[in-house]
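Q: Got a minute? One more chain.
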Amino acid sequence: MLENQCTNMKDLQKIHAHLIKTGLANETVAASRVLAFCASPAGDINYAYMVFRHIHNPNLFIWNTIIRGFSNSSNPEAAISLFIDMLVTSTVHPQRLTYPSVFKAYAQLGLAHEGAQLHGRVVKLGLESDQFVRNTIIHMYSNCGLLSEARRVFDEDLEFDIVAWNSMIMGLSKCGEVGESRRLNGMYTEALDLFGEMQKQKIKPSEFTMVSLLNASAQLGAIRQGEWIHEYIRKNHIQLNPIAVTAIINMYSKCGSIEKAVHVFEAAPRTGLSCWNSIIMGLATNGCEEEAIELFSRLESLSFVPDDVSFLGVLTACSHSGMVEKARKYFSVMRETYRIAPSIKHYSCMVDVLGRAGLLEEVEKLIDGMPLKADAIIWGSLLSSCRKHRDVEMAKRAAKHVIELDPSDSCGYVLMSNVYAASSQFEEAMHERLSMKEQKIEKEPGCSLIEVDGEVHEFIAGGRLHQKAPEIYSLLNGLGFMLERNATDYDELAAYQIMEKSNY
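A: Always. Here it is, folded:
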């Protein structure tokens, strides 16, 4: 009856009521089928837990079902708690199909260090060679950014299926959320290298793998790699769902090929809100601010409802083009019409656009009235605006906040030094630089990437490890001499010389 008549929770509850009246609800088979539906995506996990609590002496299938249900829910902590209850109170022991759900719960919660203890238990039980268990261990480590541990488990078996390869590539590609830029660039490159290995072993990737690789190409600015992956998707008829379309648009936008991004968007068979958001942000960051605003207007006129990301895109367009009145309008519409609470990023756009226009008092008032605590990016943006408009007193207040947020960060000192230099207060500018040296605060060197003939080259400020470093520095020195000789802005030249003398 459940298989034939139950399609939603309303149907299930009617059937369950009938089973309770007839006494069949006490039968293990009937109860387990009710539980299985409730714990499925079409069910209700809280109702499933209520059913579970009324089952006497649950068997292995019932334990596995309720643990798996919670691991797929918004409350994965319950899956771990139930697993511990199973270990402590039940005569039924976990088996190979129990552990993957628990590892998934740890992955959802970002608790890979705690999950490592369960990994140890699996090794002791001799289950580490089980492909299903091993793949979920890799997923847990890679999802939480413990990529060396994930790679170690991955490398133990060369016969892995697509799930393991996907987990590794996705972990390497999403590592932008868990570390520093230079280390990340290596991770993105490794993700692309791993895909090459995957091709050699003739393992067919899924659409999830391709999305991760497109993300890696976007972060590296590797347009050739991204184009090849896009062509691979087309030739192999990999499904172009809205997630994949969004990834392709994002890749072309971040690689500076906005025309191709627009073409992909316009030609897409299906577009979700994420596709609209990606193309609006892409246009906004590639010098097409008017087009971004026009597309946002199109979005509003369709059945889509703009979300916080949509407004971040249109506010970025306003910020980059200096459209103060439009920025005010969209910021107001977001809060009052769509009832979206601005995030720190939305406030950052407003601070930037108002600061660029020289409305520094309005910026300071906006920051003081924020319900969120302003971060170093917002105060740094105000500091940069103070430099442009030479407001030293406000800059001092902003720099104080930047330094208080992170005393070991060089940002506040460097920006304040630039403010002084722009206002021809060169002794004070030098004092800021010397203060950094006395406190042993070092400016983290900048890092940039460029793709030449399909190969991504990384350059670090002051670095001389690149194989063509002598030729590059010779050309830069020549350009620097030409710029210095032709400099017409004395303040800009003075600021440059101060920076040179302080070795930053």
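A: Residues 242 and 272 are 5 Å apart (CA to CA).
Q: Perfect, thanks.
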